[in-house]
Amino acid sequence: MTKPRIVSFLPAATEMVYALGAGDQLVGISHECDFPPEAKGKPVVVQPALDLQSMTLREIDVAVAEQIRSGASLYTVDKDLLCALKPDLILTQNLCQVCAPSGNDLASALKLLHPTPEILWMSPHSLDGIFENIRELGHALGLDSAAGACVEDGRRRLAQVADRSAQASTRPRVFCMEWADPVYCAGHWVPEMVNLAGGRDELAHRGTDSVRMAWAEVIEWAPEVLVFAPCGFNLEKALEQVSYLEKQPGWSELPAVRNHRAYVVDANSYFARPGPRVVDGVELLAHLIHPDLFTWTGPADAFQAISTSNADPTRTTMKTCPECGQTFECSSGGCWCTDMPHLPRGTLPPSDCLCPQCLANAVKLNATLQ
Predict the structure, then answer these.
(1) What gap in Å lies between CA 231 and CA 273, rounded to an integer?
(2) What is the spatial distance between Cα 189 and Cα 277, in angstroms, rounded to a whole number?
(3) Average pLDDT score over the chain
(4) What is the rounded CA–CA span in Å between residue 356 and residue 328?
(5) In CATH terms, are 6-123 and 170-305 the same topology?
(6) In DSSP terms, which residues pair with 77 in a beta bridge?
(7) For the domain 6-123, what is the CATH code?
(8) Which segment of 104-113, 128-137, 161-170 scores lowest on mean pLDDT?
(9) Would you say residue 102 has pLDDT above 60?
(10) What is the 3-state secondary structure (H, E, C) of the chain?
């Protein structure tokens, strides 16, 4: 049997090809196919139609929306190169027009290819869908056994994370942010990843597109762990966007920021691409959400905590003590109560912080009851 020649329009599909041991059959890729490193040496068939390098996040969001609204493509396919490569199998998707060429982009190119290659569409909305795509690719390549082993290993690792995270005493409030300006929540398989890792992201849209949302919703959710995973960015590029977060009103008062649990991650590698490495992404999330239960043994550039050193410790908020009714100053980024002993859940009134004197009295009372 002749091994099919593969062209991948999709970075996640390229990763699958190599995971199944078929990298030698890959003859063409997209400009974003950068993993594993040896894939970058393949001929590039797909290029972006827009130059986004000098744009701000909001300018990118507007330009992409206008391109899609006008019916124009976000990508250009090198039709001459595609014809010269003579693929037997093309890997593409219809999930997201932003992520890779979709149906309309491919239709005109196919008219030039003779014989017409097989098209494998990969448009998963869940982790199960990703695993199914791996099996479908394995079947198309005659590598069913390798695909089955890849899927079973992934499921085994996910089950291990789920079993251990179930032992945690709490499931923290998590917010996975897929864009900073405007703010986008997480969608598709990412909420499922958070759940397996032992967190709760009630702002996310499981199994469907991520959407724009008001920053006020984030403030109201008050995430205890915040994961900034901008779609299409590696860690280095994502870190350049942190200033957008720090400008948001109330940023420094979020529990995740106050407690140094806001992180930037390599979204390209572990979250945005529906390929084998989403399993690594679940393991990374488990470490960020429950560091007492999980260690991270992956690459050091997978994530970085957002520094709070630039927070203004002199900013204060006036609050009313629910115990005595007096107003008092609460410093953002340097609260006086940080160094006091923690009280058990249910000890404090739910409406607001206690003033210094009432909190001190509550701490003393709790000590006498133990």
Answers:
(1) 9
(2) 12
(3) 86
(4) 8
(5) yes
(6) 46
(7) 3.40.50.1980
(8) 104-113
(9) no
(10) CCCCCEEECCHHHHHHHHHCCCHHHEEEEECCCCCCHHHHHCCEEEEECCCCCCCCHHHHHHHHHHHHHCCCCCEEECHHHHHHHCCCEEEECCCCCCCCCCHHHHHHHHCCCCCCCEEEECCCCCHHHHHHHHHHHHHHCCCHHHHHHHHHHHHHHHHHHHHHHCCCCCCCEEEEEEEECCEEECEECHHHHHHHCCCECCCCEECCCCCECCHHHHHHHCCCEEEECCCCCCHHHHHCCHHHHHCCCCHHHCHHHHCCCEEEECHHHHCCCCCCCHHHHHHHHHHHHCCCCCCCCCCHHHEEECCCCCCCCCCEEEEECCCCCCEEEEECCCCHHHHCCCCCCCCCCCCCCCCHHHHHHHHHHHHHHC
Q: Work out the widest C-alpha separation in the chain, in whole angstroms.
A: 84
Rounded Cα gap, residues 334 and 99, in angstroms? 41
Read off the tokens for 136. 């479908």
Domain extent listing, the chain: 6-123, 170-305, 316-369
Instruction: Map tokens 């001459």 to a residue.
Output: 80
For residues 285 and 361, give the distance between their C-alpha atoms in angstroms, rounded to a whole number. 38
Amino acid at 83: C
What CA–CA distance (Å, rounded) separates 183 from 215?
Answer: 7
Query: Closest Cα partner for 34 from 8, 5, 60?
Result: 8
Is the distance from CB of 47 to CB of 79 less than 8 angstroms? Answer: no
Taking the domain 170-305, which CATH number applies? 3.40.50.1980
Torsion of CA 183, 189, 194, 197, to 10 degrees: -160
Q: What is the pLDDT of residues 255-272, one digit of tens each?
A: 999 999 999 999 999 999
Question: Under 8 Å CB-to-CB from 13, ≥6 apart: which residues?
Answer: 91, 92, 93, 120, 122, 133, 137, 275
pLDDT band at 324 (very low <50, low <70, confident <90, very high): confident
Burial (0-12, 13-18, 19+ Cβ within 10 Å), 245: buried
d(CA 178, CA 273): 12
